[in-house]
Amino acid sequence: MTPFNDPEMEELMKIKEPYKKANRKYKAEDTIINIGDIHFGEGNFHVFSGPCSVESKEQITEVANRVKAAGATVLRGGAFKPRTSPYAFQGMAADGIELMLEAKRETGLPIVSEIMNIALLDLFADVDILQVGARNMQNFDLLKALGRSKKPILLKRGLANTIEELLMSAEYIMAGGNDNIILCERGIRTFETATRNTLDISAVPVLKKLTHLPVIVDPSHGCGKAELVEPMSLAALAAGADGLIIEVHNDPANALCDGPQSLTPDQFDTLMRDKIRPMSELMGKKLGA
Amino acid sequence: MTPFNDPEMEELMKIKEPYKKANRKYKAEDTIINIGDIHFGEGNFHVFSGPCSVESKEQITEVANRVKAAGATVLRGGAFKPRTSPYAFQGMAADGIELMLEAKRETGLPIVSEIMNIALLDLFADVDILQVGARNMQNFDLLKALGRSKKPILLKRGLANTIEELLMSAEYIMAGGNDNIILCERGIRTFETATRNTLDISAVPVLKKLTHLPVIVDPSHGCGKAELVEPMSLAALAAGADGLIIEVHNDPANALCDGPQSLTPDQFDTLMRDKIRPMSELMGKKLGA
Amino acid sequence: MTPFNDPEMEELMKIKEPYKKANRKYKAEDTIINIGDIHFGEGNFHVFSGPCSVESKEQITEVANRVKAAGATVLRGGAFKPRTSPYAFQGMAADGIELMLEAKRETGLPIVSEIMNIALLDLFADVDILQVGARNMQNFDLLKALGRSKKPILLKRGLANTIEELLMSAEYIMAGGNDNIILCERGIRTFETATRNTLDISAVPVLKKLTHLPVIVDPSHGCGKAELVEPMSLAALAAGADGLIIEVHNDPANALCDGPQSLTPDQFDTLMRDKIRPMSELMGKKLGA
Amino acid sequence: MTPFNDPEMEELMKIKEPYKKANRKYKAEDTIINIGDIHFGEGNFHVFSGPCSVESKEQITEVANRVKAAGATVLRGGAFKPRTSPYAFQGMAADGIELMLEAKRETGLPIVSEIMNIALLDLFADVDILQVGARNMQNFDLLKALGRSKKPILLKRGLANTIEELLMSAEYIMAGGNDNIILCERGIRTFETATRNTLDISAVPVLKKLTHLPVIVDPSHGCGKAELVEPMSLAALAAGADGLIIEVHNDPANALCDGPQSLTPDQFDTLMRDKIRPMSELMGKKLGA
């Protein structure tokens, strides 16, 4: 149906599985993704942390210093925010990216931020990891454009997307030539209303079997409640995840976005020291290496 | 949270409902959308029809002539196709748009086609209605850009999006200044596997109560089976929809996309004449006016 | 796996389809179910109506007379109520059945009521149709016991059950020797919160193709809102249903159960006369015969 | 609405929460359930294990001895099986219970088995824990009857039931006077097809907060694949569960029911020794006490 003038691609199309480059049958060993001194894969366990949205220089710098001290190895922070309502805070945009870069310079932490519009790719030149959010998991033009980039991509599962569809979206990026993809389970839509979404922990071992790409879990968006971040972080680690992405805010009660699911820096510190570190040791994973 | 320097917007923000411009409480009378000689609203009932994908000049022209003769008032046809797999047929792109325009010139039918990338907006200059597909319903940058356009928008409900979220996405377009929006129910994701999706017919009366915007239904994508198009078209009409969008292909068995859910031109002709016309009369709707 | 000493059953087991006796491939013609002078099938359309719960002699008698006058052919009324909370009104139990029988004697309408416990079967001796509620669709011991009865069964689809599972539950009853089954779509659980459940209208044509059993729709429980009963009743009829089950209460605001989804007798009268009658004529169905 | 002649109940009804006796607000300390020498609660962690169905004396005795040696403290085994198809193996019925009792006498392990029909309660006189299966979670007559028993109840969450509904079903049993309830998360229905169900691990911390009753997890039914039992068992333990229920079969390939999700005795032994024991120590739980 689709003719290729590329011998490697012709070879690939002979694989019957719907996803080919992302398929562990095609490449058995784990993909290792290098971001500065950080290595995904090789049995390491990484925690991404930071606020849902960048709000000010003070906020992002304080949070960055605190999460770094606690053991986080990547700083997260949204500058462009996908909000259900056009009247809700949409993020600081270019200014937010600039503040993230300042925090990066100050702490040395690599940074991850969501890109929603490929026209703004230049703005993300010094961002270490580009995040594709759940609502854009099947924004195929965005995926194709990121396939032409060489930057690591954090690809989040859509709210109603199957595990196979997540792998097909990774395949879009890989088919374009970019193999640096970190997959992220962040909760799916179900009838249950006690949690914001239903975090599908079983997606972790299913993905680890089907693909060689690293898999992390977002318990903050997955559950929508700060009190569930600890148990679900530990569940993700126990199920074999390669990392976590946890929201931390210096003042959750006054956060411009997603305060109810954010930990304070103190809570994050305790979680890392008393819970995640000992469990990652038990699981034979090296925390933040 | 979001400061506006616009008195109308300041007024709007006082409305407590999450969607404001789309809200029937704010504007009780139905929005009428004019496309050439066609008027949405005022008790008219319109059927959009055509192939899932434009495949050739012969195909689109033949289908266009047949569906026009049968009573369709808008020609649909995909040039840019959102496909789960990067290895599946992605549409004829610019050539597909050109063929749609030829079919428009030949038949006089206004045309609708999906736009996935705002960078390609110029290519759609002569397309009458821009479709936002289910996977892009929360591609907010796309919605904002379309708000600055004045073209009618066909906004499809996402596979896991609530009715309220659909209205919030319409609100994004309206907040930008474009009120010409047609909403489309096209099936949601559930546990049921007998149908491709579960077509939520109750979304029609719910939407008609909540908003003044016209609402149409896509039974082809909603069910994924040609044999279900007739009963579900009639159900949508009986539930109060303002129109339908039905896939028709000259050769469904060999269609490059979605053949199993496409009607033949003969089947469409029979459906329109023997079923949709008498039922629209019973419902007090004027077919294709 | 299961040895049968019954030649008919041995023959049946050779059919590969999971449901055999319920399968249209095994019996092409519609099953006709006779209840007094009423015939299901043969192109008839029946409306079951009455209150969610029997509350008093005055209530059930008044409602029975009103819905009969409006054209309903079966009186519904719950005596044993499956309630989520043990502290909610559980129905009038045996007294409720007695009041239903009085209303039957007064109006001549056959009656349907839910049975939740097979130990109470004797109490239902003069009830014309035994209802298996959504929560008991896979109460297999109940299904087996009803298979040994010869009474018509109204089998409701479970909230999270597939169409195939509904047919398998019908098969349980039929395997026991009772072929008098009316299937009922009454809404499934999804993420949508604007309606109580999502009424799966597409289940009607899917079931009509797969089985020879009659299929009715319950828009009252399916949507949970009185204002949606009219459009969804018409949608069900348009999609090919053989009947409806509609809740009518003389005083919805003070109903002990499900008031928000109940019509008044006047609303039901108007719905039957102005909407359901003309549409059943258009669909070529004979109302209440 | 419901008048009570019981002062304790009158007091109870003043609590505004929908579930009262099951509510941690009403009773802060964990409920401890004693079964022979085994204590649920007090920071213990129990693993229930055994085959899906009892198939023969040799099978159940062998499995019982093996799982006991590996550290399981309760033997599970189905005698009455709820099967979607009436033509599938329905269990050994009374003979199955008898074989479970023999295995109990031989190993000293307390036993749990599913009861689907209250008329058979006498048959379960020496069964230690009565299981209410997912399909019967809202079989309210069964719940009421079990409320009058004093036996410990293992109450499984229904496939489409919310956490609150699970607690309301527990409340039915408690309102009848039986407080000995163990709750079980066993997967919910979603659109995902890579797993049999989606195991909702977040239900564990949500339940532990809302109720004082113990909570266990069934990774076997929850995922439907043997390879997922290990990671999901560890995830459940890490999330705070009080126990697990794991299917073990001496010959999974030839099991009469649910073979694909069963571990072999060797696999179970390794899981307990190498994974569950060290993780329960890390979590500060005493395994099988």
Automatic annotation (TrEMBL), chains A, B, C, D:
Superkingdom, natural source? Bacteria
- One Pfam family linked to the record: DAHP_synth_1
Which Gene Ontology MF annotations are present?
Answer: 3-deoxy-7-phosphoheptulonate synthase activity; aldehyde-lyase activity
Presence of the UniProt keyword Transferase in the record? yes
One GO biological process from the UniProt record? Answer: aromatic amino acid family biosynthetic process
Sequence ranges assigned to domain DAHP synthetase I/KDSA in this UniProt record? 33-271
Q: What is its EC number?
A: 2.5.1.54
Q: Which keywords, in A-to-Z order, does the entry hold?
A: Transferase
Which stretches are annotated as coiled coil? none
Put simply, this protein is called 3-deoxy-7-phosphoheptulonate synthase
